[in-house]
Amino acid sequence: MSSDGPDTKAATPPAIAQRVLVLQGGGALGSYQAGAYQALCHHDFEPEWIAGISIGAINAAIIAGNPREKRVPRLKEFWELVSSASPMPWGSLIQTDHVRSAFNETSAALVATFGAPGFFVPRIPPAPLWPQGSPQSQSYYDTAPLRDTLLHLVDFDLINSCKTRLSVGAVGITSGNFRYFDNVEFRKLGKKIGPEHIMASGALPPGFPSVEIEGEHYWDGGLASNTPLDYVLDAETARDLLIFQIDLFSARGELPQTLMEAAEREKDIRYSSRTRMNTDKAKRLHDAKLAVLALIAKLPDNLKDDPLVAKLNEAAKENTVTVVHLIYRSKTHEASSKDYDFSRLAMNEHWTAGERDVYVSMAHPDWLNRPQPGETMVTYDLSQETDEHVS
User: Fold this and answer.
1) Most buried of the four, 42, 93, 112, 209, by CB within 10 Å?
2) What is the pairing mode between strands 321-327 and 121-122?
3) What is the dihedral of CA 200, 202, 206, 208, to 10 degrees?
4) How are beta strands 241-247 and 216-220 bridged, if at all?
């Protein structure tokens, strides 16, 4: 991150900084990310690095695991597949929020009962009837269809060539530790990303089974952190970054008035990103680094060559980070089941919302000239009617 202290560089304009796509978890809401990516392609945004959690990891793998011309078609194929059990061509006949809410709840109940094609199916017999300790006894659904879907839609050889960096997060069940599976880091160790790493990132219990990797069982990364922004910021401190962060749960919302609204709001808070917390932390770190550089500048010449001073100088170097934050904001007819309503109607609405929010954000050219001198991390939520400068 840039600063005005000694030995600092000028900030790279966001338009030519390293481009990163950060995708939050959120189940059926993930088609919002696919629509947003399609719109980003229209604006020639080609990510060098994609990081995802849960459904964000699946979208990320499809994007990183295909050449550019196949990415949007593959995303469409995935989302049309998982929503194919409920195409609901008569959905346009729904005229009121009350009726639409009933439709959504019915669609989600059908998914909970029968599963989503190409993604997960209910266990038969149910989990309680399997022997205790068996893999089948620990989840309501079987995600074997997702493995087949990933092998069909994703070129893992392309992912492991590291043409696009891919990072997906999961949580070790016995250790409780968060871990990222990163193709660039794996390559250094002679390892490869496979479908199991993507499935581990989305293995949300007790619905989905854990995934075993290298002797450890993993669950959905959203249990610990539902956004990979922290990982990206920690892993890259040299190059300037332009990050499109696409979230599926909003931290801000209205005070609930009903039990269903309370359930939805609780889920939003639990899984939303803490972008304000991240930017505040980055600012405190920036101020500390400026203080270190200012102190070094005041040292007498005979101390400036001390090895400890050299280490402090290196630690105080910063890159500049610009985050364009896109957040899916629920419609009034949606409830806490919105993340497992895989109806075709909901999928199309979420996809269209993602496209729209990108186009609105791209209509604000001012952020392309940021950060201003002295700024090191700025975040914009530009998808609303007004330009909301978050930090």
Assistant:
1) 209
2) unpaired
3) -80
4) unpaired
Which residue from 216, 179, 198 is spatially nearest to 23, judged by alpha carbons?
198
Residue 18, H or E segment: strand 18-23
The three-state (H, E, C) secondary structure of the chain, written as one string: CCCCCCCCCCCCCHHHCEEEEEECCCHHHHHHHHHHHHHHHHCCCCCCEEEEECHHHHHHHHHHCCCHHHHHHHHHHHHHHHCCCCCCHHHHHCCCHHHHHHHHHHHHHHHHHHCECCCEEECCCCHHHCCCCCHHHHCCEECHHHHHHHHHHCCHHHHHCCCCEEEEEEEECCCCCEEEEEHHHHHHCCCCCCHHHHHHHCCCCCCCCCEEECCEEEEEHHHCCCCCHHHHHHHCCCCCEEEEEEECCCCCCCCCCCHHHHHHHHHHHHHCCCHHHHHHHHHHHHHHHHHHHHHHHCCCHHHHCCHHHHHHHHHCCCCCEEEEEEECCCCCCCCHHHHHCCCHHHHHHHHHHHHHHHHHHHCCHHHHHCCCCCCCEEEEECCCCCCEECC
pLDDT along the chain (391 residues), means of 10: 44 78 95 96 93 97 97 98 75 66 80 92 92 90 97 98 98 96 98 98 96 96 89 88 90 85 84 72 79 88 87 83 87 77 90 93 73 70 52 40
Structure tokens of 188?
A: 């250094």
Cα distances from 361 to residues 57, 170, 202, 384, 388, in angstroms, run 23, 30, 29, 8, 11
pLDDT of amino acid 340: 84
Which residues, at least 6 apart from 222, have a Cβ–Cβ distance to it below 8 Å? Answer: 25, 53, 54, 204, 271
What's at 362, amino acid-wise?
A: M
CB-based burial label for 309 (10 Å; 0-12, 13-18, 19+)? middle
| pTM score of the predicted model | 0.88
Amino acid at 271: Y
Distances (CA, A) of 1 to 86, 125, 181, 240, 241: 47, 55, 25, 7, 9
Assigned token pair, 294: 């200012």
Instruction: List Cβ neighbours of 117 (8 Å cut-off, separation of 6 or more).
Output: 81, 82, 84, 85, 145
Token pair for residue 210? 């854990």
d(CA 229, CA 232): 5
